[in-house]
């Protein structure tokens, strides 16, 4: 986590803190010779909390045949560790949730649905610490509360974001960290076990590996629980369902019937579970509609479709990463309307990290209008400006919405192509070069002006990686000048030196 953010968190007087009962429970849980009477004594200080523990022990979540009437029976039937974890869950939720923070309602809904999902998956896979899964899933977004307390401007991120992935993206852009890292740090301050701290840190990770299989399984279930919870919260139920299915294939690998069973169970328990935590999740009608849509998506799923969904999901992720900037004119070149160099360098770093994390290619086209100074000298700068704008509009029409085209400076342009192979990039470069040459701009005196371009291309891939975003730009820039020095109106592609 960024050092400046950690310092701000430490100095924040409004940072979320554990309620006193929760603090006592955490301390008691850490003792090697834990006494059930001590736990009962702690819970007795909060009768409402004790009543909730008994109530949830009698709920379908546990499926107990005989009714639990007191904490002693709850401990005997559920186990001491389960009672402590359940008590922590209720105490933390009650202590940290504020009625004066309506912008966090969706965050709490996601946490609660995730906790149901995680415990159910743990139960069906015979995970011994199902309540730890319940608590970890419940707390996976706790870092949002910390960031909200740290910065009054954080509320704007919640209001602007349409999805959970939007929240993460905006956090990284604003703070150089996100709530998963902040939540991990916060739970460490509260002296929570490493497994729970790690579950929060990796709750957005789809490629979890850990030193033990049991820990990897635990972390994977928590990460999947959030993706499944998003089915009820995402603006597009269908898209969220696809995303959850892809995450399932990467993380837990539930069968189709298991996945459907999770959707059905959560739908059936939505209302009663919301009552336990004093929050209205969804009406029965809404929940059933979501269930039907998710079931429809699952019903049409097959292997071929899943591969296509995975590809489309990657494209959507890139598109969502870029399109949020369309309204921010500060990042635009005022003449051409293209992105400016400063923004290009910012997004380059993000896309390079994404390319490395997902092992997909990242290509770059560096273009320069040939002899552009002669146009300015002969026809004047206003005509030169019109040429720049016409070329810019043409390039925008030829590119995907997920691509980024920027005016790098003067008559130089850079096109960033996420998830694009070198051969596709070369074809695009040739099409752009030939298309620009065909453009015609009429001067004030009625002369038709044509301009050619010199082009440099470089591609980062897992087989041929660059050290960083700057190295990729430098390689394409080098190829651009090689094209200019070779006579202009040419394309040069960066080739890796052959090994000795």
Automatic annotation (TrEMBL):
Its EC number is 2.7.7.65. It holds the Pfam family HDOD. It comes from Pokkaliibacter plantistimulans. The lineage of its organism: Bacteria, Pseudomonadati, Pseudomonadota, Gammaproteobacteria, Oceanospirillales. PANTHER family: DIGUANYLATE CYCLASE DGCM-RELATED, REGULATORY COMPONENTS OF SENSORY TRANSDUCTION SYSTEM. NCBIfam families: GGDEF. SMART domains: GGDEF (SM00267). This is diguanylate cyclase. Residues 302-329 form a coiled coil. It catalyses: 2 GTP = 3',3'-c-di-GMP + 2 diphosphate. Keywords: Coiled coil. Residues 15-206 form the HDOD domain. Residues 360-496 form the GGDEF domain.
